[in-house]
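Handout, page 2. Input:
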Amino acid sequence: MTPNPDLSYVRILPELVLSIWGIVVMIIDPLLPEGASRKALGVFAFIGTLAAMGASLYQENYPGMGWFGMIQVDEFSIFFHVLICAISAVVILASFEYLEAQQIRSGEYYALILFGTVGMVLMSSAVELVLIFIALEISSISTYILAGFRRRAAASAESSIKYFLLGSFATAFFLYGVALMFGATGWTTIYKIADALRIGQTFVNGVPQLVNYGLAYVAVALMFVGIGF
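Output:
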C-alpha cells in the first residue's frame, strides 16, 4: 500500500506547531520596541505549547509509522508529547516574573524553549537512531543558549560553556555508539536492531551475517552515556 504523505505530516504535527510558533516569536520580537516587555510573546508561546498538546492528542486518531519508518505515533509517544509540552507550558508561565525581575527583555527566550521542546518531543517518537541524535542536538543547542541567557552574570556564562563542553563529549559518545551499533547489526532502526539481536543474524546487501554481540553491548553502553547526560 502506498504511504499517505498527509499522514506523515500528521505524525509530526506537534513538532510542526511548536516550530511555527517559535519562528513567529523570532519574527515578531525585533518588531517590538526596544526595552519593552516581552510578556505578550510569552503568552503567545504558552498558547503554542497548548496547541502542541492538542495536536498530540489529535494524533491518537492516526497511530502508526511515518517518514519512511523513522517516526512512530503510539500511546508512548503521545504520552510524552503531552507531558513535555505541559512542562514547557509551566516553565513559560514561571518565567514571566523571573524575566522581569532579572530585567531580561528578549523574546528569543520563549522561542528557544519552543525549539528545545521540538527536539524533546521528536526524540520521544523517533525510532531511528540517527533521527534520535538529531532531535537530541536540537534540544541540546537550545539548552546551551538558555543556560547562558543571563549574559550579565558570570556564573551564567560559565555554566553555558561548561554545559556545552560536556554536551559535546556526550554527543560524541552517543554518535560513536550509533556507528558501532550499525557495525554490529547493519541497522540504525530500533525495531530492525531488536530483530537482529533476537535472532543473532542480520542481512547486509542481502548477505546473511552474524550479529557481533560484544560490539552491540559496547554500542549500547556508549549511547547510554549520551542519553544519560
